[in-house]
TrEMBL record:
Family according to the record: Belongs to the site-specific recombinase resolvase family.
InterPro entries per UniProt: Homeodomain-like_sf, Recombinase_CS, Resolv_N, Resolvase-like_N_sf, SSR_resolvase, Transposase_14, WH-like_DNA-bd_sf
Catalytic site positions: S9 (o-(5'-phospho-dna)-serine intermediate)
UniProt keyword annotation of DNA-binding present: yes
Entry protein name: Resolvase/invertase-type recombinase catalytic domain-containing protein
Pfam families associated with the record: HTH_Tnp_IS630, Resolvase
Length: 205
């Protein structure tokens, strides 16, 4: 059985006409010309980077071994090369082929293995590019005086003030209200500095 899938990246409509800004008409016509029945065409009007795609999920639930998924172009099917590779592998394992009209691709037969090899290489390149961008971003942040990880609720000056107020006799609740943070933050600040109720007693002595 042939099933079709088409996608555009927005569901916005023209304010005057009420028509969709982007239409799937071209994709649908191509799928119909390829022999896909209208009732077997599923679509999404959402960005390809969005994980949850209702139309695609409904299509995947319908597929059986021997079926083929027809798309206008491969980029309509996957959010990224990595995602497309994972989907292609899952469908191939299920015995389902992918046909891309514009790309001239049909994963049935030997070409399917070749396509997965190419997608695998592209996906690895994509992963490497992501790793390089993350590493570069961290290096730039550190070079500019930034830090990696969750930002502390209290800066170094506030932490010193917390200790001084605690040693002077103020309660945890009073201090937390002063700095507008939770009691646990004050407890943690004191604990990290090795300050306890005993420290307050020793300070008075």
């Amino acid at each position: 059985m042939l099933y079709g899938y088409c996608r555009v990246s927005t569901n916005k409509k023209d304010k005057e006409t009420g028509a969709y800004v982007q239409t799937t008409d071209l994709q649908r016509d191509a799928l119909l010309s390829r022999g896909v029945l209208a009732e077997n065409i599923y679509e999404d009007r959402i960005s390809g980077t969005t994980k949850e795609r209702v139309g695609l999920n409904e299509l995947l639930d319908k597929l059986q071994p021997g079926d083929s998924v027809v798309v206008w172009k491969l980029d309509r099917l996957g959010r990224s090369t990595i995602n497309l590779l994972e989907l292609a592998k899952a469908l191939r394992k299920q015995g389902v082929n992918i046909i891309s009209i514009q790309d001239g691709i049909d994963t049935s037969g030997k070409f399917g293995e070749f396509l997965l090899t190419i997608l695998g290489a592209c996906a690895e390149l994509e992963r490497e590019n992501i790793r390089e961008r993350v590493t570069a971003g961290i290096a730039i942040s550190i070079a500019n005086g930034g830090r990696i990880g969750r930002k502390k609720a209290l800066n170094i000056y506030a932490r010193k003030e917390v200790i001084e107020q605690f040693l002077s006799g103020k309660s945890i609740t009073q201090i937390s209200r002063t700095f507008n943070v939770g009691r646990s933050t004050i407890h943690r600040t004191l604990q990290n500095e090795g300050i306890s109720a005993l420290s307050r007693k020793e300070n008075k002595e």
